Amino acid sequence: MSETIFSKIIDREIPADIIYEDDLCLAFRDINAQAPVHFLVIPKKPIAKLSDADEGDQALLGHLLLVANKTAAQEGLEDFRLNVNNGAGASQTVFHLHVHVLGGRPFSWPPG
Ligand code: AMP
After folding, report:
1. Cis? peptide before 110, omega within 30° of 0
2. Residue 98: active-site member
3. What is the CATH number that goes with domain 5-103?
4. Is the whole-model pTM more than 0.90?
5. Model pLDDT for residues 9-46, shown as the tens digit of each residue
6. Where are the domains of the chain?
7. Which of 8, 29, 79, 94 has the smallest number of Cβ neighbours within 10 A?
């Protein structure tokens, strides 16, 4: 996978407001927040998009959700929304898998 802005954040080549890190993943605030709390949880493993993950990534994908959960609680969120954009047609712009975590305001359904 080619280098992305998120791999540069992992490598500390560009700054980010990192709120959680472990051996497998990183969570940092979205630079263009769409809610009072908006952060991204990304694997350190370079997976371009969710549909590129396979059975071998099962534990990693579960870990991302648990970190989203834990970090949302750390941010004081009780209700929150997770979003994964998969592919350009679904508004993915950075091709390094990421889970959006948004909270701090009401969310309607269906999403836009
Ligand atoms: P997506 O459209 O799902 O690919 O989301 C990519 C997200 O990355 C967008 O919400 C951007 O605002 C966010 N983003 C892009 N560059 C940065 C950055 N340097 N630091 C934090 N968030 C970023």
Report:
1. yes
2. yes
3. 3.30.428.10
4. yes
5. 999 999 999 999 999 999 999 999 999 999 999 999 99
6. 5-103
7. 79
